[in-house]
Amino acid sequence: MGATRATETARAMEESRGSRRVRGSDVVAMTHQEAVTWLREVEGELYRTRDGNGPRAWVAVVRTPGTSSRRGKLIIAMGDTLQSAAGAAAAQWQRVWRSLGRLH
After folding, report:
1. Which residues make beta-bridge pairs with 28?
2. CATH topology assigned to domain 3-99
3. Would you state the pLDDT for residue 22?
């Protein structure tokens, strides 16, 4: 993901979703469409576990932006729904983005 796209995505998330947190957690509250759109913007992947003996889960996988001195981090977040998996990944993505500082 390019630095410009990552910057735009981070700004958009802060403006539109930054204050929409699931009470008592770090998960960003998202609609189905917001989750799918965000995953596309950050070039993330979404998986669903196979049928088995336990409950099915959604898994969101995204890479955070890196810098010239630091590689991006891989985020793997699980949830009962597509929205909760993407929301958990988005919250972690935002924390990493903010830790990079204002220069990015």
Report:
1. 21
2. Bacillus phage protein (3.30.2120)
3. 46
Report how far apart, in Å, the C-alpha atoms of 56 and of each of 15, 81, 82 are: 32, 9, 11
| CA–CA gap between residue 104 and residue 96 (Å, rounded) | 12
Percentages of the chain per state (helix, strand, coil), in multiples of 5: 40, 15, 40
Spatial separation of the C-alpha atoms in residues 60 and 74, rounded to whole Å: 10
How far apart are the C-alpha atoms of 44 and 10, rounded to whole Å?
14
Residue 37 banded pLDDT, cuts 50, 70, 90 = very high
pTM of the predicted model as reported, rounded to 2 decimal places: 0.72
Long-range (24+ apart) CB contacts under 8 A made by 68-75 are 70/100
3-state SS class at 33: helix
pLDDT (tens digit per residue) in 58-103: 999 999 877 777 788 899 999 999 999 999 999 999 888 887 776 5
